[in-house]
UniProtKB/TrEMBL annotation:
Domain Uracil-DNA glycosylase-like: 15-176
SUPFAM superfamilies: Uracil-DNA glycosylase-like (SSF52141)
Annotated source species: Streptomyces enissocaesilis
Domain of life, per lineage: Bacteria
Pfam families in UniProt: UDG (PF03167)
Keyword Lipoprotein: no
InterPro entries recorded: MUG/TDG (IPR015637), Uracil-DNA_glycosylase-like (IPR005122), Uracil-DNA_glycosylase-like_sf (IPR036895)
NCBIfam families assigned to the protein according to its UniProt record, in alphabetical order: PRK10201.1 (NF007570)
Protein name: G/U mismatch-specific DNA glycosylase
Keywords: DNA damage, DNA repair, Hydrolase
Gene3D superfamilies in the cross-refs: Uracil-DNA glycosylase-like domain (3.40.470.10)
Gene name tied to this protein: mug
Length: 187
């Protein structure tokens, strides 16, 4: 992909991979330029979403971004807090995040996933006005949907390794398979 092709993808939208009653709806911050150029979520080669999803046990093998529609067969989906693509997440204003949180809430109310997993604690805090939120299950719900804040799988997030991210994602996987009883995976 050339730099010109990537720049041309700015502000494009990447279609959601969604269905009703998913087990987990993963929610990215916003699409990067590579994702917008290819039409596939988490498409940048250094992004750890697909490896972490597999390492955590959500998928039986590591999917490639262009195989994203296979997630639906596992009861999983993908959307974003902010729909428009940008080169960096810091190009998104707080107001855009808050509006994204309102739109995401409406989407979750319509689709009714068991869990909404926001991959990026800062995006979650800003979109939902939860300034002190931490990684893990949240007290907030959207209807019957529980929320889990996960570490951002971007290669720029050096605080988390693929292995430690996979451990946190696996906690969500265990909770999402729970029959509704209080799980020992919640803190």
């Amino acid at each position: 992909m050339t730099p010109e092709e990537l720049l041309a993808a700015r502000d494009r939208l990447v279609p959601d991979v969604v269905a009703g009653d998913l087990r987990v709806l993963f929610c990215g911050i916003n699409p990067g330029l590579m994702s917008a150029a290819t039409g596939h979520h988490f498409a940048r080669p250094g992004n750890r979403f697909w490896p972490v999803l597999h390492l955590s046990g959500f998928t039986p093998r590591q999917l490639k971004p262009w195989e994203q529609d296979e997630l639906l067969s596992y009861g999983l989906g993908i959307t974003n807090v902010v729909a428009r693509a940008s080169a960096r997440a810091d190009e998104i204003s707080d107001e855009e995040f808050r509006e994204g949180g309102r739109l995401l809430t409406a989407k979750v109310e319509l689709l009714r996933p068991k869990w909404l997993a926001v991959v990026g604690i800062t995006a979650y805090r800003t979109a939902f006005g939860e300034k002190k939120a931490m990684i893990g299950p949240q007290e907030r719900t959207i209807g019957g949907t529980r929320i889990w804040a996960l570490p951002n799988p971007s290669g720029l997030n050096a605080h988390w390794t693929a292995r430690t991210m996979a451990e946190e994602y696996a906690r969500l996987r265990a909770a999402s398979q729970d029959d509704g009883q209080e799980s020992d995976t919640t803190r």
